[in-house]
Task: structure prediction
Amino acid sequence: MKLIKNVYDFYAQGFKSMTTGKTLWRLIFIKVAVILIVLNYFVYDRSIDTEYENEAQKIEFVHGNLVGKSR
Result:
């Protein structure tokens, strides 16, 4: 338990004494958040099940893609 406290104190002291590092860590967290938001927006799970409501629409979509690509 003392080892865990020593490790925590070591990192806590290091982060408290940082000046430029705090700004860089904030920038990193902001960039990661923006990247995740953008990826979630553009790479949203859009599959055939979520785009089409019934079997007829799904069949028409698949048939149109198969016939359209064979030409």
Summary: The CA atoms of residues 26 and 65 lie 46 Å apart. The chain has a mean pLDDT of 85. The chain has one domain: 2-70. The first helix runs from residue 2 to 16.
